[in-house]
Design brief:
The protein has nine helices and eight strands. 26% of the residues are buried. It starts with a helix and ends in a 16-residue tail after the last strand. The chain is elongated, with a radius of gyration of 23 Å. Helix content is 48%, strand content 16%. It folds into three domains: 94 residues, no CATH class; 79 residues, no CATH class; 80 residues, no CATH class. The C terminus is likely disordered. Strands 1, 2, 3, 4, 5, 6, 7 and 8 form an eight-stranded mixed beta sheet that branches. With 260 residues, the chain is an alpha+beta fold.
């Protein structure tokens, strides 16, 4: 076997593994378009870059048929160990940065990732369903500011401490039971078209795909770390229909950390 052939075989194996990783990310942990909302492409490029180049490149450099079978086997085992370690480390980062909750509160959605919630946060969830982080994709939830003054003060203190309200699982409730609130808060699609004038046809296609009349479809902003997006919902019931990679706010309404 030549050095080039050995490297190509290694590259093929790496490509198969990379494809499996990509499928796991896009189909389970980071469903489109939330993948771009949390900057998943940056992590993916690093992860796949390491997996697709580290092993095959080192194999190309050190593979030598003049070595004994034992020595060559040892070298390839070390390469496999390094590549596997890098892949496991990268996957752990991907896993801990995955979206876990899409939280509706007041008039918008917030995307909450696993690394924003610690064990103490999760333990405070009043609904037992939310006392563990989902591993099969993000869950839509509803959250409402408490009416009790003491609890309100506690929320304000948490916000000043750096924990935004959507990152407080103790106030999570099933979205389906409160979706009508989201429907009433939904904005007209005319507003979304005005914010994205060159993508009106894409919005019309999304409405057509939903099977609903345009008058029964509105949008709500989705706030995320890397890219804000627009969530299409049914005005009559608040059902989430689709997420679009579109600007949901006018520039003057964006906070400095939302200008992504």
């Amino acid at each position: 076997m030549t050095r080039l052939k050995a490297s190509l075989i290694h590259l093929t194996i790496s490509a198969v593994i990379a494809t499996a990783v990509l499928a796991l990310m896009l189909l389970v942990w980071y469903p489109y378009p939330l993948f771009t909302a949390v900057g998943g492409q940056q992590v993916l490029l690093i992860l796949l870059g390491v997996d697709m180049t580290l092993g095959p490149l080192i194999t190309l450099i050190i593979f030598n048929t003049k070595k004994t079978r034992l020595a060559l086997g040892f070298d390839l085992s070390v390469i496999a160990l390094l590549q596997t370690t890098a892949l496991i480390y990268g996957m752990s980062i991907v896993f801990h940065a995955r979206p876990v909750f899409v939280v509706f509160s007041q008039s918008s959605f917030d995307l909450v990732t696993a690394n924003l919630l610690n064990d103490e946060d999760i333990a405070k969830a009043r609904n037992p369903v939310y006392r563990s982080l989902p591993i099969t994709g993000p869950i839509y939830v509803y959250s409402e500011m408490p009416s009790d003054i003491k609890e309100k003060n506690a929320v304000v203190f948490s916000i000043f401490s750096g924990k935004d309200f959507p990152q407080l699982p103790q106030y999570y409730m099933p979205y389906d039971e409160h979706s009508a609130t989201a429907g009433r808060a939904a904005k007209s699609l005319a507003g979304l078209k005005a914010l994205n004038p060159d993508r009106s046809s894409e919005i019309d296609n999304a409405v057509h795909a939903s099977g609903r009349a345009e008058s029964d479809v509105g949008f709500l902003p989705l706030r995320a770390k890397y890219q804000n997006q627009a969530v299409l919902v049914g005005k009559s019931d608040g059902r989430v229909l689709m997420i679009l990679r579109m600007n949901p706010w006018p520039p003057s309404a964006l906070h400095s950390d939302d200008k992504k």
